[in-house]
Inverse folding.
């Protein structure tokens, strides 16, 4: 995904000189609600937990001619520790380089621009911090899933600037880890999740 991000911004710079494409870059900030769902294993029942957190992101988009479609990439330049047991948990994992590549369709209503988007999100998962007496034998190295969203963009508010309000939902695929505890028996654990975000943004057209 890092290579995709670099490639996209390189292509955006190339297309910024084209008479047939516009480039939009911007920033956004808001709240994300992450719900994690750990599946049952052994004698342990399934459990779920959720957490709200503020975040910021940067994005860039290239319009695809006069089709109304744009291709975009969004990047969150922050990392986070995630756990089902809260901030005081003895087990957690660090997630960083959260990136989403997407396709967006925008419709001009006259007073504003409505849009929908769909894409694929991916982030790197660091080494799982394990509880005392537990060894992590293997683990997923990436967090990934399908994203859908919708939003509204204002008409130009001056100097090529536009405001945005957006809601997205991401269905996160299974994340897995195999651990060994005091019993010496290897156990495979897995969890999935959903991420709901609500953001306000400011973008500039070039």
């Amino acid at each position: 995904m890092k290579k995709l991000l670099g490639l996209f911004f390189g292509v955006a710079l190339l297309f910024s000189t084209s008479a047939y494409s516009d480039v939009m870059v911007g920033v956004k900030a808001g709240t994300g609600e992450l719900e994690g769902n750990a599946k049952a294993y052994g004698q342990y029942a399934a459990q779920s937990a959720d957490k709200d957190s503020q975040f910021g992101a940067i994005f860039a988009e290239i319009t695809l001619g006069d089709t109304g479609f744009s291709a975009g990439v969004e990047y969150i330049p922050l990392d986070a520790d995630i756990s089902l047991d809260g901030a005081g948990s003895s087990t957690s994992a660090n997630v960083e380089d959260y990136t989403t590549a997407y396709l967006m369709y925008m419709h001009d209503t006259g007073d504003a621009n409505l849009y929908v988007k769909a894409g694929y999100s991916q982030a790197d998962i660091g080494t799982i911090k394990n509880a005392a007496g537990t060894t992590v034998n293997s683990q997923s190295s990436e967090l990934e899933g399908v994203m859908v969203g919708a939003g509204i963009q204002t008409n130009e508010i001056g100097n090529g600037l536009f405001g945005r309000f957006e809601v997205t939902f991401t269905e996160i695929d299974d994340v897995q880890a195999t651990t060994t505890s005091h019993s010496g028996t290897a156990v495979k654990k897995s969890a999935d999740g959903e991420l709901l975000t609500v953001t306000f943004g400011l973008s500039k057209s070039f």
About this structure: The chain is about 5% helix and 65% strand. The CA atoms of residues 37 and 48 lie 4 Å apart. The helical segments are 2-15.
